[in-house]
User: Which sequence fits this backbone?
């Protein structure tokens, strides 16, 4: 079945629900109310070895409420949206707020600051909603088949998956904000598997994947191309081995480079700052990374995966600098963390149905450099080219970074053999400052994106 | 057993006497509709979940929250293929739509209507001894726990500059009907208490955390070792201890894992690889290894959903099978996998009670419950003394595994250098990386001091999170790669 289109009328209906909740909570005694409604419909079609494995289709809708009474706040959520249930929830939320202690910083923004006109960002493609399970299965089958056909060393598969989400978001506040928007997202993933008998007596399996995702159906890469790239990446890991423990250059592939950029945000945001839970506290305006590094957060790029017209506090979204040629810009803040830090919000609030707002990123992008990836590699005599990171070894308070890594050994400026079961470690401060080359291969494949870059040296632990 | 004398707001609307009470007749109509297009099997999973959370920060109660989730998930299988749909609205036409949508996975063929007289109720065991779930107790009691933890952490040392404490509690009621005639229900209480402390001196900062919980009532906090203040002191202790941390070494060396939370290593190194879906698909590196030596003969590994009060305990899994004690590795030999219905059918064995799901929005998968490495013969002191230079791992922040090649990492948040059999300097946060089967073969000493972790762990797989427990005695691994920054550390 294709899904019902999310229309302007749907958004109006969702806004109506959010506004109703605001009204009911005010009636129940709240001083301030914010209500978020999310409506979504998903389709996942997964195949394995050419046969359908899972077709999942459903729609869901939920409402999240934050009320403030006498500067005391409570947050609740429900998927029961009948009027009497909503009324009961509003009363209960107001009562719950009595349990909290007053916190002036939790007050909503001055109504004068709320967004009044919303930019049209073109985030919804009706063609994504029109896809039915049969078509999605065909795409998944084509992607997986292309991977298996591309190289006979692909002996098994974790499958091909085509999925989409379409939905609407509406947000209303007692300060007078009411807005909504719709969005669509489609993706295809192919996960081939190889048998690796390169080590006598210790047979292993090697997995890999490749994907394409977009808000627009026509922008998805063809399924067979995704499959071929997935096969190429997986087969390349055959014969992976450990290397000796040593200090060496580390080159990050864009898929892991973006994880490093995401890690930077986890220590450079208003919430981490007021909590002092980051080694970057007090470093705004200072050089905290190589001058080669510039990072922005831009919610206003039409059709981009992370774009949105207003933030989780109802403020207008805007492009913000995160790192400007290595200098740490004022960190991204929502209203609460901005209040805690005694400054203005950067319009960076994220909010889920089940919780309080907090700073978040939209399209977090590291700017590209001037050299090609090939030149960057050519200028690297030896080191590790990292394609996958494993684990969560990062301490935001101290910056200590130690994670599992997989990739290829670089010798004489060329990728030689595949490497696995090693870790790379350094303090994050050093990692950022030691970035000494940035390539020009930036692509906005997901909401956090970065080009290939090189860190002059890190400790690699292996044999 | 959880009392059924719960306040009306905590009882599922689909329970007998509820606003949308589901009886076997309604269930049979839905199952018949789900199978009408020719599916082999169908099940219905009704779920009602109430949760509450409380957070204290800067010595103030900062947020109080509550949430309600209700829905039905319908699954239809045809061969190895699954159709899945769900609804949050228990109105008849919405449930019927979900059943028909899930049923479309099967090509037209028709199925005999499900006979109502075949439904038998699964006798639910009782692995949670919680007459009064915490959710029915006054919120003010929970706020007092947060304050006690905060106070204890601050009192521990004047260098503690920040404390955050949180309490999360849920009560989940499930009702399962299957087309092969089972009906099962369960009420599952779960709570988790957490404290995080930050220590600061002379511009140096470190964080530490403590916490625990499980399927307990408020009586959990009456025990001296798990009272709120004890968790506060533990968070402060770790933060203070780590202030003096030095750079960790890099390279292969012996590692001794402390009892309890070290079970994370087990969970990652071997647990996931023994979930039968990976073996059914032959994507795990344990595929085809049944009956073979996959670990040191010292190792016996068990997954056990029946440990009373454990975070990973389950009376019935999310497919209606009762929780079980399953031996996975016996004296180093692989003897069994963890199964859900689909994989059990494939391997021709009984389901092992491991079919779990995050919510009604997702299909069940083979998942761990409480996974333990049983105690061995060695005195923990003797194990330490056997190490000339290595690392002692005490607290962990998590781990991850690549099922296919077996590589896994896990992160140490509190560890020490071992020099000449004694603990010396605390080490900065560091990762260990190894290959599951290699590492388990290198377990060369095993302590007699088994501990089950206090309940804080959550396992993620295919985007689904479920609560689990882990347990180990003191374990010595002859050699594993330590991901520090100091070369020549070994």
Assistant:
């Amino acid at each position: 079945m294709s899904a019902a289109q999310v229309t302007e009328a749907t958004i109006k209906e969702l806004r109506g629900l959010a506004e109703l909740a605001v009204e009911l909570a005010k009636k129940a005694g709240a001083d301030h109310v914010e209500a978020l409604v999310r409506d979504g419909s998903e389709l996942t079609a997964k195949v394995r070895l050419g046969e359908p494995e899972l077709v999942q289709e459903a729609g869901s809708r939920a409402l999240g409420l934050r009320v403030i009474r006498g500067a005391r706040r409570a947050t609740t959520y429900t998927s029961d949206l009948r009027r009497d249930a909503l009324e009961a929830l509003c009363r209960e939320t107001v009562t719950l707020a009595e349990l909290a202690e007053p916190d002036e910083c939790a007050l909503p923004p001055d109504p004068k600051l709320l967004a009044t006109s919303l930019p049209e960002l073109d985030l919804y493609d009706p063609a994504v909603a029109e896809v039915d399970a049969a078509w999605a299965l065909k795409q998944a089958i084509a992607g997986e088949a292309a991977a298996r056909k591309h190289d006979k060393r692909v002996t098994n598969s974790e499958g091909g998956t085509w999925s989409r989400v379409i939905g609407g978001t509406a947000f209303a506040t007692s300060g007078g904000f009411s807005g909504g928007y719709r969005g669509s997202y489609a993706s295809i993933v192919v996960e081939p598997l190889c048998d690796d008998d390169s080590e006598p007596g210790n047979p292993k399996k090697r997995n890999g994947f490749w994907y394409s995702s977009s808000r627009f159906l026509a922008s998805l890469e063809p399924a067979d191309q995704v499959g071929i790239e997935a096969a190429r990446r997986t087969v390349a890991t055959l014969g992976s081995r450990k290397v000796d423990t040593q200090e060496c250059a580390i080159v990050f592939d864009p898929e892991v480079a973006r994880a490093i950029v995401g890690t930077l945000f986890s220590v450079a945001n208003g919430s981490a700052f007021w909590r002092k839970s980051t080694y970057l506290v007090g470093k705004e305006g200072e050089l905290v990374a190589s001058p080669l590094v510039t990072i922005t957060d831009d919610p206003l790029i039409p059709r981009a995966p992370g774009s949105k017209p207003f933030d989780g506090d109802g403020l207008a979204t805007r492009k913000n600098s995160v790192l400007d040629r290595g200098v740490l810009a004022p960190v991204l803040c929502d209203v609460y963390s901005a209040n805690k830090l005694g400054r203005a919000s950067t319009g960076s609030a994220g909010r889920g149905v089940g919780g309080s707002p907090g700073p978040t990123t939209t399209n977090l992008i590291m700017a590209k450099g001037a050299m090609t990836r090939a030149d960057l590699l050519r200028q690297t005599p030896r080191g590790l080219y990292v394609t996958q990171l494993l684990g969560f070894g990062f301490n935001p308070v101290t910056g200590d970074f130690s994670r599992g890594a997989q990739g290829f050994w670089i010798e004489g400026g060329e990728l030689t053999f595949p490497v696995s079961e090693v870790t790379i470690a350094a303090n994050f401060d050093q990692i950022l400052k030691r970035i000494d080359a940035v390539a020009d291969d930036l692509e906005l494949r997901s909401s956090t994106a970065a080009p290939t870059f090189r860190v002059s040296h890190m400790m690699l632990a292996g044999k | 057993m959880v009392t059924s004398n719960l306040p009306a707001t905590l009882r599922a609307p689909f329970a007998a006497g509820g606003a949308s009470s589901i009886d076997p007749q309604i269930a049979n109509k839905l199952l018949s509709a789900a199978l009408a297009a020719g599916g082999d099997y169908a099940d219905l999973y009704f779920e009602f979940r109430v949760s509450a959370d409380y957070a204290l920060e800067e010595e103030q109660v900062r947020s109080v929250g509550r949430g309600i989730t209700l829905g039905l998930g319908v699954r239809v299988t045809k061969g190895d293929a699954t159709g899945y749909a769900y609804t949050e609205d228990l109105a008849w036409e919405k449930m019927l739509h979900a059943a028909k949508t899930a049923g479309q996975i099967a090509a037209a063929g028709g199925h005999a209507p499900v006979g109502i007289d075949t439904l038998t109720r699964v006798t639910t065991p009782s692995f949670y001894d919680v007459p009064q779930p915490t959710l029915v107790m006054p919120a003010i009691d929970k706020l007092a726990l947060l304050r006690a933890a905060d106070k204890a952490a601050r009192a521990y040392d004047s260098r503690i500059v920040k404390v955050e404490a949180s309490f999360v509690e849920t009560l989940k009621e499930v009702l399962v009907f299957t087309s092969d005639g089972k009906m099962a229900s369960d009420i599952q209480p779960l709570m988790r208490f957490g404290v995080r402390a930050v220590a600061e001196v002379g511009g140096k900062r470190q964080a530490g955390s403590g916490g625990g919980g499980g399927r307990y009532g408020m009586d959990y906090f009456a025990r001296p070792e798990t009272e709120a203040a004890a968790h506060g002191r533990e968070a402060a202790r770790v933060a203070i201890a780590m202030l003096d941390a030095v750079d960790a070494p890099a390279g292969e060396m012996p590692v001794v894992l402390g009892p309890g939370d070290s079970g994370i290593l087990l969970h990652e190194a071997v647990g996931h690889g023994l979930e039968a879906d990976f073996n059914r698909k032959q994507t795990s590196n344990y595929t085809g290894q049944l009956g073979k030596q996959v670990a040191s003969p010292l190792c016996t590994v068990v997954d056990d959903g029946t440990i009373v009060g454990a975070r990973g305990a389950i009376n019935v899994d999310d497919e209606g099978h009762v929780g079980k004690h399953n031996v996975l590795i016996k004296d180093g030999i692989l003897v069994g996998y963890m199964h859900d219905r689909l994989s059990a059918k494939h391997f021709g064995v009984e389901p092992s009670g491991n079919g779990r799901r995050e919510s009604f929005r997702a299909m069940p998968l083979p998942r761990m419950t409480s996974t333990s490495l049983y105690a061995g013969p060695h005195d923990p002191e003797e194990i330490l003394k056997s190490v000339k230079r290595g690392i002692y791992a005490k607290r962990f922040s998590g781990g991850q595994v690549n099922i296919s090649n077996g590589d896994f990492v896990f992160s140490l948040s509190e560890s020490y250098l071992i020099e000449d059999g004694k603990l010396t300097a605390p080490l900065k946060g560091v990762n260990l990386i190894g290959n599951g089967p290699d590492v388990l073969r290198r377990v060369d000493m095993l302590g007699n001091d088994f501990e089950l972790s206090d309940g804080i762990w959550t396992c993620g797989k295919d985007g689904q999170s479920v609560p689990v427990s882990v347990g180990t005695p003191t374990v010595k691994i002859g050699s594993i790669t330590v991901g520090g920054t100091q070369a020549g550390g070994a």
